[in-house]
Design goal:
This protein is an alpha+beta fold and about 220 residues long. Helix 5 packs antiparallel against helix 6 and helix 8 runs antiparallel to helix 9.
């Protein structure tokens, strides 16, 4: 387990010294909550890169520094996790742009991200609390709903979350993941969280089911 963000900084410094190509790393999940003091420790570091080129460069650096690749387990059913890398207490979940099926690292997510480290070859950014909340409503990993509650207690710009859901739904053709977001937000409301965008989220989910029903009717008629 990692209980101090300085451990992550030290790791990135090591990886930077082993690198000769510039890469931008966008951190999600527990590492960002640890940075903000919203989580006492994290077992993994979720990282998104913007391109296949950066993915391959960073993957090679991890292996050169002693990380071993590992196959994702069933807790990652809703993720299109490209690879897990493990070394001692460090576990890195590495994604190539798209994190949750068809939900991608968008231009607005990049704009909202905060740069926390500018090394020689690695630039490290923390995704916003809003975007981490958004991604965590898509996963099946234990503790993600608790993390959503912690993020919400700090205060969230709900409009940013709604705008991102709308943008991602349009980009992915209103894919099934919108139902995962709706289900998780329903559970969070049952836990007492006030979600001011809930009616609009329900509308998006209804649009998805209506689209599926139309496709089914068309197929049946044919």
């Amino acid at each position: 387990m990692i209980d101090d963000f300085r451990q992550i900084n030290t790791l990135f410094s090591e990886l930077d010294s082993a690198s000769d190509r510039k890469i931008r790393l966008y951190l999600l999940g527990g590492a960002v909550l640890l940075f903000h003091g919203l989580k006492p420790a994290t077992k993994d570091i979720d990282i998104v890169v913007q391109s296949k080129r950066e993915f391959n460069i960073f993957k090679n650096r991890l292996i050169e520094c002693g990380f071993q690749p590992k196959i994702p387990d069933k807790g990652y059913t809703h993720l299109n996790l490209s690879q897990i890398f493990v070394r001692d207490d460090f576990r890195i979940d590495l994604f190539e742009k798209t994190v949750c099926k068809k939900a991608a690292l968008s231009k607005n997510m990049i704009r909202r991200a905060k740069k926390v480290s500018g090394l020689k070859n690695l630039e490290v950014f923390l995704c916003s609390r809003e975007d981490i909340f958004f991604f965590k409503t898509m996963t099946e990993r234990e503790g993600d709903l608790d993390d959503c509650m912690s993020l919400a207690k700090e205060g969230l710009e709900w409009k940013d979350i709604l705008d991102e859901v709308v943008h991602q739904a349009q980009s992915s053709g209103n894919d099934v993941w919108v139902t995962w977001v709706g289900e998780k937000m329903d559970i969070l409301q049952q836990r007492g969280l006030v979600i001011p965008i809930m009616d609009k989220i329900h509308d998006i989910v209804k649009q998805y089911y209506a689209m599926i029903e139309r496709k089914f009717d068309t197929a049946k008629d044919n």
